[in-house]
Amino acid sequence: MNSSDDDFDTERHFDEHDEEDDTLDAQVWQLLLLINPGDDDSAFQQFAAYREAVGDADEGEIDPLRVIGQVIDWHSGFQVEADDTRALVQAIDELVSRWNLSIDWEGDPEDDDFHADIDAASLFAIAYDSLAPHGYTLWARETDDGSYAGWITLTRDAEPMRELATTLGINLRLGSDVT
Question: Which of 62, 102, 146, 179 has the most CB atoms around its CB within 10 Å?
Fold first, then answer.
């Protein structure tokens, strides 16, 4: 049985979601549900942290991606320096451990030679390919500073993720498409 066969059904969140509710809060909530598959508690905690961070600010004054990045960091998402392949491996390993999965990095990520011979794009591709058979998709999101950032969703939620990212102004691509 893989994760996409479990009892958790993301679609129920979209069914319960009021289609007329296109507020920033509603969009952030949907994003947090998608990047926390099977873990509504984490999504709720992160949403509470998001709401606390934005306080009473007007929607136009909020940089949602910056705040989301802060509340999900190293639990449901990551952002690492472009040349820090060690941190990238650690971040992805941390994320997949939530589902008792591990990535076969096709080498020893503890070895200095491994990191000397590999780049972030290759690591994204390896992780993407490793997660796909389990029903998960690794996403990479564009950053302003050239670092690498991303999160993981259920593969079946690819289309809602793409739509939501577009709505939120997040430039998102599959982990297999990182260059």
Answer: 62
**Residue among 97, 126, 133 at smallest CA distance from 3:** 133
Distance, in Å, from the CA atom of 138 to the CA atom of 35, rounded to the nearest integer, reads 10
Q: How far is CA 121 from CA 6, 127, 132, in A?
A: 30, 10, 17
Place of tokens 């430039």: 171
Q: Of 71, 80, 68, 65, whose CA–CA distance to 146 is shortest?
A: 80
pLDDT by residue for the chain (179 residues), tens only, comes to 444 444 444 443 443 444 557 899 999 999 999 999 999 999 999 999 999 999 988 888 889 999 999 999 999 999 999 999 999 999 999 999 999 999 999 999 999 999 999 999 999 999 999 999 999 999 999 999 989 999 999 999 999 999 999 999 999 999 999 99
